[in-house]
Amino acid sequence: MSELNIIRELKKLNFNNLYDKDFLLTWEKSIDELKAIMLIAEFLKAEHKNGKSLRVFESGIGISIFRDNSTRTRFSYISALNMLGLSVADMDEVKSQVAHGETERETANMLSFLAEVIGIRDDMYLGEGDKYQRNFSAAVRQGFNEGVLHQCPSIINLQSDIDHPTQAMADLMKLKDYFGSLENLRGKKLAMTWAYSPSYGKPLSVPQGIIGLMSRFGMDVTLAYPEGYDLLPDVIQLAKNNAKQNGGAFNVVNNMDEAFRNADVVYPKSWAPFKVMERRTTLLKAKDKAGLDQLEKECLANNAKFKNWECNANNMALTKNAAALYMHCLPADISGVSCNAGEVSAEVFEKYRRDTYHEASFKPFIIAAMIFCARFANPAAVIENIMKCNKDRKCS
Amino acid sequence: MSELNIIRELKKLNFNNLYDKDFLLTWEKSIDELKAIMLIAEFLKAEHKNGKSLRVFESGIGISIFRDNSTRTRFSYISALNMLGLSVADMDEVKSQVAHGETERETANMLSFLAEVIGIRDDMYLGEGDKYQRNFSAAVRQGFNEGVLHQCPSIINLQSDIDHPTQAMADLMKLKDYFGSLENLRGKKLAMTWAYSPSYGKPLSVPQGIIGLMSRFGMDVTLAYPEGYDLLPDVIQLAKNNAKQNGGAFNVVNNMDEAFRNADVVYPKSWAPFKVMERRTTLLKAKDKAGLDQLEKECLANNAKFKNWECNANNMALTKNAAALYMHCLPADISGVSCNAGEVSAEVFEKYRRDTYHEASFKPFIIAAMIFCARFANPAAVIENIMKCNKDRKCS
Amino acid sequence: MSELNIIRELKKLNFNNLYDKDFLLTWEKSIDELKAIMLIAEFLKAEHKNGKSLRVFESGIGISIFRDNSTRTRFSYISALNMLGLSVADMDEVKSQVAHGETERETANMLSFLAEVIGIRDDMYLGEGDKYQRNFSAAVRQGFNEGVLHQCPSIINLQSDIDHPTQAMADLMKLKDYFGSLENLRGKKLAMTWAYSPSYGKPLSVPQGIIGLMSRFGMDVTLAYPEGYDLLPDVIQLAKNNAKQNGGAFNVVNNMDEAFRNADVVYPKSWAPFKVMERRTTLLKAKDKAGLDQLEKECLANNAKFKNWECNANNMALTKNAAALYMHCLPADISGVSCNAGEVSAEVFEKYRRDTYHEASFKPFIIAAMIFCARFANPAAVIENIMKCNKDRKCS
User: Does residue A396 sit within a domain?
Assistant: First the structure.
């Protein structure tokens, strides 16, 4: 879309309510709001490609809190901050400690005197990640209301136990780009399927994020997993309701081939069963090392029963014209490459390698667009200003 | 104070000598110099609140050397650098190693080719922290004089074994704000008292910094601690002299209630006895692990005798109109919240929570003002220039 | 050289081929290209000394990958980035892990969406460091060609198993400065000699970088080491060819005094024998802990036979007028200062201390100049633009 068209489209949307807010779950945002963020991300990506400066902050800090290791998301966040003129400040001390109540509220405020935005990844414990983000948000909101903070920073969910909105939104942009428009997604079948991985305890937030988001754009979403690998019941219910309300479909099956059959898009990805994650959280809180080791052993043994849940030439042949788009949040467990047996065969991955990289390339811009909408009361005016200034990123 | 008044006041003060210098101890600076730093911090805080850009550096590095863990001070320092346009560079390698002589001099210079400022926290070992900062300063001064460095960076003490000037100055700003003016502090009683904490080995720099600074502004400072919990004798002598010269008072008592009686301000805070810190330093140098464990055991046992040194509704009732201002450098050990029994009751802390957060909110601006005065020959002119440019921090 | 002269000289050189390229080995660059980088580094250093802003990027990221510990080079790199307006992003996760194939390619691309430059230090394993850098480069080049990346970042070798070009180029700038011009280096004798150190396993890249570079500027290079402490045979052959083609000389001797005799410059520096490094790499790959310990023991015992390879007043007396320039990449092992017996006597080191610091001071500017040439199609025009803008680094 041309940049003038982007602005024209933007002006049709009602997204004022993104201003001065957090971005925690896609399903807390309206369709207009999600569309606006994608349009702005498109604008930022196009301008970046053209070598233009997108610096809209003279100074300001983006705090980075990663309570789980991350390379890709961390760099996407750093890139988004840098693009807009913000500096990253890592709060790595919280990685392993679980703070509560006053300690948490106090820390949140002490970090935030100059903060514009706070990116948080906390996806390890069911029932904890989203809660931590909301507590953090409430703490700084209170600090602002009490006159301690000059401005209330916005929280960006960089992966919680419930949703991974920066990933899901980047994935949606890839789909929009691949099929030409959001409208073209209507009726397209997306198979979000479990896949085998030799590792253990992968978060549920990616599949939950995908079914929670794509079901709002009229897609025919099929979720597939081996018996026992359930997701959070609330999110399943949400996907069902979304499908009803938006003219799509949502089905759950326990068979990979069935999900792949006639699919336009496949997203095979490992995760841990919801009930295992619950037990794990309980054991972790009890610091029951032996119990955790036992649980891991059980799980890996159970995973191993489903080694045939691999995306490969055979099941790709079942998809629409044997040519579904393969998606992954990366890194994928590639059979014979990054592990002996994994989520996807080397052949399929290599065929779609460029697509998966391209999918990931939307993430820095989606994050930047979320920040943009949270921090500027009138994003369209700021965009027009960027175009008018037309400043190169490099001196010439 | 209005911003024009700030500039008018600033022009009455003689503070040229802050330029191209370090900030290590408040008592090495004149009253005028301290006042100027506070005025500039006020200006920066007001402009930040108004959304203005305070970027006065196009580029430049602020080195961060934390030889002890820190979250609050580290973020205040990062925030100060960001506000002014400097980038932080962490020198974390020195955390655990004690380097000497040529190695130290060489490292100091190798880091500093682009440095404007170097923030150092080194508060763990009596007789070491301040020395390390002075050695670092001498090293870069020599490097500059020998033509190795293009400019001589300024050292900012972010907490040493002797003083914690960025904390004490932020506290003084809080007092100035709370009582309306520095003049209003004359005759006000401040109780800097020891308080019980279940932890061990807290630095002496906060109480030392408070008595060393507040005694210069005509306050009636009472230091209280259980027998044996002495501070550095030199700082006690200094506080006495300050009081004499500035028309205030300085008393030491061994009774918390006595200190609280009729106080306008109370600052209950745990610290380790000076002699314990000395023994600890000796044991650490000798790498005597058993000795250190034994010392910790002894100390905690000794601390436990003074659990009644808690700030609570009972002793707060003894203060002026039962309404003294409660201060703390945070995080406080709050009884029943962050520990079983601690420095302050939950009730008192909650009543003054907003005040303690507000107290902390001055710190990024005090640090920025210290940097400002150390790096600009004519800070008033730069401030006037900031006001003239009147640039927003966010693009519009 | 005056800044106008620098521009005039620059315009005589053919260095277009540096644009959009990596800088991995000095011997992959033409003499004109090396001269251009030094001229630009001189310009940047002079402007920095004059307090001028060298900010040529509005935004952009410089990734920092250190697979071996580093303080000096890391800060030089950070300083170079800051000077030009780029922000550093540390990729520390790769420190200990050796990734291969798809994983490596994928990571390289995932980090690089906003990257202008990627500085890599990987000097621990013979046959690995340079390879890692080339793989990284190929990965991002492919990503760019496939439309995943908007721009292809340039790799800067911050020390590999083969070369340490930012060090060697900084050293060459020191020599140019010390002797007045590159022309004056013709015929000057440089003794690159092994020296005793109590530590083990130091990389070969500094001596290799020095003989590979200085032999191209007509110097009379003598390499000296105890029998068995060979460097990579390819680099030895390269130095021989360089000497032949550029009217200099290159000799290898096994005697420190012989190397020092009549030398204009001495560079005494410890390294591990090439064959030991090969065995070490093999043992590391096999995770043979016992073998590694045995190798270290053997090596230290062997090193100890050559304690007399120390640079001191006695052998300095053999040099040209007993006044050769002493060089070192720092930190040096100084006998009686940083170790009992080491590479250089305290007396000699102190005499040349300021020179070694000054030598190091070129490094941030050499790195910045490498980035400058890799990222700007017309560096001379950008330099003219910097001069025209004549912007101060600090607001006034």
Answer: no
